[in-house]
Amino acid sequence: GQFVPMWPAGSPYVTAVGGTEGGSPETAISLSSGGFSNRYAQPSWQASAVSNYLSTASNLPPTSLFNISGRGFPDISAQASGFVVVCNLIPNPGVAGTSCATPTAAGVISLLNDLRLQQGKSVLGFLNPFIYQNADSFNDITEGSNSGCSVHPDGFPASKGWDAVTGVGTPNYKKLAQAVLRLP
Q1: What is the signed CA dihedral for 68, 79, 161, 151, rounded to 10 degrees?
Q2: pLDDT in tens, 113-167
Q3: Cβ pair 156, 163 in contact under 8 A
Q4: Which residues lie below 8 Å from residue 93, measured CB to CB, with a gap of 6+?
Q5: CA gyration radius, the chain
């Protein structure tokens, strides 16, 4: 058997978001998805980052379990635990998942778009090449891993640089604001 990559996160046409937890240090959360697409080839804008991960990360699952030439995901990550969701006016504490991390990351990107609009610039549009060109504008997550599955007990570990559980890391608004304002 092989790992079964998730869709649409495995698509190169979306910005896939992984999950983290904690704060000092912030670590990958085991419920975060991640891996390598069987459907889409690895895009050029992430090739160097993925190559570095595959050649330097320790404790990777056996390469026979995943497509090393596929699109790696996630691209970025955000906090994915400790959320309170209100439904029918009833607060539900302790909600966790990338379904919490993704809107958190989208909120940060919205603030960056707002900053650009205030300067008379256009919104960011397709983010993925920008993310990999500005990986140093994210908080690199180097601890933790996602869980494996019935095929193999261990998932992908967090590592320096891009990894298949937290991407390039969590948004650092101050650094990202500077990066987006340098764009035309």
Answers
A1: -30
A2: 999 999 999 999 999 999 999 999 999 999 999 987 767 778 999 999 999 999 9
A3: yes
A4: 84
A5: 16
